Amino acid sequence: MxxxxxxxxxxxxxxxSVFSIVFIGVAAAQQPKxxxxxKIAFESDVPGLDxxxxxxxxxxxxxxxxxxxxVTIDExxxxxxxxxxxxEVKDGGKTYIFHxxxxxxxHDGTDCDADAVKWNFDRMLNPEEKVLTAPFFTMIExxxxxxxxxxxxxxxxxxxxxxxxxxxxxxxxxxxxxxGYKTWGKQDSPAHPIGTGxxxxxKWEQNALIxxxxxxxxxxxxxxxxxxxxFRIMKDGVTRAAALRAGEVDFVxxxxxxxxERLSKDPKMRVLRGPETATIFLVANNGRKPFDDVxxxxxxxxxxxxxxxxxKSALLGLASPxxxxxxxxxxxxxxxxxxYPHSPERARALLKEAGFDERNPLKYTLMTHAANPVLPxxxxxxxxxxxxxxxxxxxxxxxRPVFLKRIQTHDLDQVLTIGSHFVDPYARAYLMESTGGSLxxxxxxDTHVDALxxxxxxxxxxxxxxxxxxxxxxxxxxxLIYPSVAGDPFVQAxxxxxxxxxxxxxxxxxxxxxxxxx
Length: 518
What we know:
With 518 residues, the chain is α+β, with helices and mostly antiparallel strands. Helix content is 28%, strand content 21%.
C-alpha cells in the first residue's frame, strides 16, 4: 500500500518549513537514553482533557501526548501516518481507505481497531455530543469498517481539506477509548482521558500538576523514551523563566516574550521561535448593539487602534501586526494593514455617523484573560489608543476558564474579546466564524461568510484553495468579523540536555521522541 500524500502540503499551512527546528544538536551521533522525568513549566491548568470538547490552547498541547490520530504532521509539516500505517484515495477523491496498525492498545488495555475508530466518528457527528470539531467533517457521507484493521470513509464531495482536518484541525482527529467513555460517561470522561498516545494520565492536581507516565503498550517500537512528564502549573511568566534558569524545570512551554532575549544568550538554553502560526484576535459581538453596526467595528477595531505600535511595544517586535485571521507563517496569508491606517479622526467620524459623540460616548468592556500575560497589556494599550477617538474602554481580566465559558455562551453584551489561537486558520474560520460553527465567536449571521467557507472546503486544487482563501480574508477584513491585532509569538525553551524535541510552532507539541542526555 502507498500513502496518499501528494495533496498533503496544504496541511502544513506553512510558507517555509525551514523554520521547523529539531532539538538534536549532536544527538544524531548519540543513542537516545530511555528513562527519566521531563519537568515542564506549564502556563495554565485546563478545564478538561477530552480532545473533542475541552476548550483552550493548553488542552491542545497535551492532546498529542495522550492521543493518536489516523494521520498526523511531521517535522516538515507534511501529512504522515499515525494510527493508519497507510491509506489510499479512490473515486476521484471521494473515498479513503485507511489501513490501521495492528495490536494498538488504548491506555485501558482495550483494542484500537476499525470499530473503535468508527465509534469515534459516530460520536463526533452526533449533535448531542456537541463536539467542537464536528463542523470540519460534515463532508463525510459514511464510515465503514472493512475488517478489524481497515476503515473506509466516503465523502460527499472531493476536498483538499479532509486530510488536513484529520491531521491538524485542532490537533487532528484524536481517537479516544469507547470503553473508557462509556465507563466514565460524557460528564466525567474529560477528567479521565484514555487514548493510545505515548503517555497516559497518572495524576491531576488542579492548578498544581498534571503528571503523565509512559504507556507501556505503545505501538511505536522503543517509544516513548521518557518515563514521566510533569506539567507543573506556573501561571506567572517570570516564575516559569526563573525555574528554567535555576534548573527546577527542563522545559518551558510558553516563554514570556520579555525573557526571550535573556534566555537566548544563555549557552545552557535552547530558545525556539519562528513565523507566527497563531493570532491574537479582537472580536466584537456582531449580533448585539452597538457592534452589529460595521461602522462601530471599523472605528474601534480598525482605525481606532495602531497595530504597529501594539506589535512593537506589547510584543517587543517578536510578532507582526495583523488584520487577517491568517498569520504570516501559514498558508495563504494576505496583508490587509493598508485598509486601516491608525486614524482617530476617521474613527470619530464613523462613530458620529453611528450616533456616538462627546455627549454620547461609546462605552464598552474589553474582556481578556491572563494565561497569556501579553493579552492584558494589549488590552490596556487599546484602551489608551481608543481614548483618542472618544471611546471609553473598561478592561476586564478573567480567569481563563471563565473567559472561555463566556465566549462559548456569547455572554458578551457590549464586549470586545481579545485572546489567542493556535490552530489552522481556515479551521478556525469554520469553527468560530461560520454562522453554523460550533462556537461562532463573533455571534454573527452573515451567510456570505458561510458561502465562502463552503466554497473553500470544496476546493479541489491549491490554486482554487488560495483564491477562495484570499476572498474570505478580504471579506472578513472589510467587515471586521473575526479580525486579528497581531500574530501571537509562540516561544518555547529547554535546557541543553533535552534532546529529540521537534519544534512545530504550536501546530503540534509532542514529547514522544524526547530524551534526556544527563
